Amino acid sequence: MEARIHQFLLFLFICFWFSTAQNDDGTILRALKDSMDNTPPNWEDNPDPCSGWDGIRCRDSRVISITLASMGLTGTLSGDIGQLTELQILDLSYNQLTGSLTPRIGDLKKLTNLLLVDCDFTGPLPETLGNLENLVFMSLNLNRFSGSIPPSIGNISTLYWLDLADNQLTGSIPVSSGTTPGLDMLTNALHFHFGGNRISGAIPEQLFHSNMKLIHLLFENNQLTGTIPDTLGLVRTLEVVRLDRNALTGNVPSNINNLTGLFELFLSNNLLTGPVPDLTGLTSLNYLDLSNNTFDQSDVPSWFSTLQSLTTLNMNRTSLVGRLPRDLFRIPNLQNVDLSDNRLNGSLDLGSSQSNQLQQVNLQNNQIDVFQQSGQNSIVVILVGNPICMESGNTGAEFCSIPPNTDTPYSTQPNSCTPTSCRSGQISSPNCRCAYPYTGSLFFRAPSFSDLGNSAIYEALRSQLNDFYRSTQMPVDTVSLRDPSKTLDGYLRIIVQIFPFADNQRFNRTGLLDVGFSLSNQTFKPNNTFGTYFFQAANYDFTAGASGGNSSNTGVIIGSVVGGCVLVAILVLAGIYVLRKKDSAERTTHESSPFALWDENNGSGAVPQLKGTKAFSFEELSKYTNNFSEINNIGTGGYGMVYKGSLPNGQLVAIKRATRGSTQGGLEFKTEIELLSRVHHKNLVSLVGFCFDQGEQMLVYEFIVNGTVKDSLSGRSGFRLDWIRRLRIALGSAKGLQYLHDLADPPIIHRDVKTNNILLDERLVAKVADFGLSKSLGDANRTHVTTQVKGTMGYMDPEYYMTNQLTEKSDVYSFGVVLLELITARNPIEKGKYIVREVKEAMDRSKELYNLQDVLDPTIGLSTQLKGLERFVDIALRCVEETGDRRPTMSEVVKEIESIMEVAGLNPNAESASNSASYGYTNKGSEHPYTNDGLFAYSGDHFPAKLDPK
């Protein structure tokens, strides 16, 4: 009876607290809701924003993500947003939000993604944007922002993606001075997108320097004046440069030839003078447009035929004189040549072995008097306005008229089925199923091709999109593309229709949010053929469950209940609930104390001491994994099965489920949840929760897509780890171990450091995982733990193996083996050979790269690029000394790797870039990351995609 009274009083307290207390972030979200219209219906029905509000993700009752792309929101963004101080992602793209961007946005110090694409914001950009010290993505394009670019943006050292294109920004490009910041300080940024504004003045020389990592520099269609600074040639990482449609003057700097990795160069429609630039060094160039400038009269450049990667050559109105060489038309991938309105003369001979991709040669308004026709007859040649077309007999020739556009517009065709007749608003998909697709336009800012009629190119893009949505398990059935065209800005526009699964016919809000976010956040990455893009969405008015009408604001009602009749009613109901529903009360007690049945005698130890980790019931995890279905099974290890799941807030998780009835791993289970609940570092795996219910032991981690370092070294992950990436992986994992040794209280020894237990998130940031064998020193003054030897052969410290004394230097030894594995891509023990002994026997410190060329992984890069490799080998071999007292500490290892990175010209404080930095990334899809016991790490549900460092 006494227990019932306690239960009754506890329940009354909970009821009273629930009726009077308001979650701070919940209150803020409700205030934000009041400033907007057309918010999701379940924002009305559910009093707790962290329990199912569409687009809201929380951690420990704090809002960390707001993703509301394409929700049809109207209204303004209230300054209350600044109070959500734990917010990491804010995506309000493709809505109709108006007004200015509140200066309170700068209070979101933990924000990593600020995505406000294609809204209708106006006014100046607040200077407080520079306070977003952790920001990685800033996409504010396709609005009506005015005023100048805030110099304070230069303070955001973490910024990778800066897109302010297609606004109404004015003023000059800000650079730093002794007292003010500027864009030249963004040394880790890979993307500068400023096209389609009204930015004026000269491009400052200070903007560019050799420490920058830019790959995309887009200032097209502005009002820039002055010369192109010589310092542009210092940024050797550049792949796309668009300075077209400005008023730039002077000569093109000669050191632009240093940009040997440049794919696209657009300098057209300026006032450039001097000689036609010599571009001999740009051997990777696909697309070149120098049209409509006032260069000095010049002979046809000899470097034309050296650009063997060209697909497009546009140099109309560039004062060219002379005869075109036949070698120009032998460039293997050449598609389009426009040299109209020049002074080209003599005979035109396309040769008999021209590119089989050549579509059109436009030479109108030149001085050509002979045309030797040979080779492919399908090539369109335009010679209108040349002497040859004034000769009798040629006036009616096909090449003496401007041909009509005969290209058949591309449209995705049905997949071997007959399109069905659909009701109004529905469209038949490529799989011949009626549905309401999510529609919009993809704009590619610098495609590498000009042949708009090549259907194979669009089929390849469609295949990439379909593969992407399948791999992410979004509710997408298929994708359709149609009507590719060029805009006035030279962008390639393609209309996209994304179809939901057939049994739904329409996207629900969760599915729509995921698809919208994948495009606003650049999570989908096309290959280099298409390059960088932006998406512009059409309204989607067909959301499943959208017609709910307005319901009462339950949260406001509950928040106002503080007494009177309502409180009395709650107390009465509470009494009835406790006294008559004993079983339910017991279940509630169990849920609030998930270790009530924890058995110390089953090998699991005493009740774990946890900090903020969520306890899930078996029923919850069963629901999140579709009853642990086979399709959700993503891996198998000695511990058991691993399943992919989706929480109600949309977060993807990986659930590690122990084999039913097995006592193996009981202690490891307890150790892992205890350790992971109290260690928090960007280079350590993050635990979401666990399940200890119905005889089950499950660990719930954030989901990862890029697998283990072992997978990457073996090639299973589908991307290449060059020297730079390996240095960053080494540093990240070293920092994770340093945290365990030096900053965890008490210190922690991992005990199983290996490449299978180092994971890579979407930005290839290394995270140390799998703490099942870890040991705590218990007392910060202790130097070792005497324990049974456990670990993985090949990585194990021989001193620990001989003495059973585990120390922090045991992790250092294992990490030294990891460092050697990073440069050799060999297993620690392979065909009876030990990697440590093999490196020591092969090395010769008197020779280049220590004479290790035969031992190094051939995919790591050229020897001239391996700056600092000798020092890297030195620190690795110091780590694998026979005795611990001769090994460095992890703190010393971190400092040495940072020093090596500085020697290699890298910023050791910069993270790996986002996946969208490299459009050449491919995921082979043949293996899933979770195929071993070294499990789980991920830095956000949809975080910037790669972001793949260059």
Automatic annotation (TrEMBL):
Q: Where is the Protein kinase domain?
A: 628-901
User: Cellular component terms, GO, for this chain's entry?
Assistant: membrane
Name the keywords, alphabetized.
ATP-binding, Glycoprotein, Kinase, Leucine-rich repeat, Membrane, Nucleotide-binding, Receptor, Repeat, Serine/threonine-protein kinase, Signal, Transferase, Transmembrane, Transmembrane helix
Q: Where is the signal peptide?
A: 1-21
GO molecular function terms attached to this record: ATP binding; protein serine/threonine kinase activity
Name its cellular compartments.
Answer: Membrane
Domain of life of the organism encoding this protein: Eukaryota
The membrane topology noted for this protein in its Swiss-Prot or TrEMBL record is:
Single-pass type I membrane protein
Q: Where are the transmembrane segments?
A: 556-579
Pfam families linked to this entry: LRR_1, LRRNT_2, PK_Tyr_Ser-Thr
Q: Which CDD domains match?
A: STKc_IRAK
Where primarily located? membrane
Q: What is its EC number?
A: 2.7.11.1
> Where, by residue number, does ATP bind?
K656
Q: Which PANTHER family match?
A: PROTEIN KINASE DOMAIN-CONTAINING PROTEIN (PTHR45974:SF267), RECEPTOR-LIKE PROTEIN 55 (PTHR45974)
Family membership, please give it: Belongs to the protein kinase superfamily. Ser/Thr protein kinase family.
> What name appears for this protein in its UniProt entry?
non-specific serine/threonine protein kinase
Q: Which organism is it from?
A: Helianthus annuus
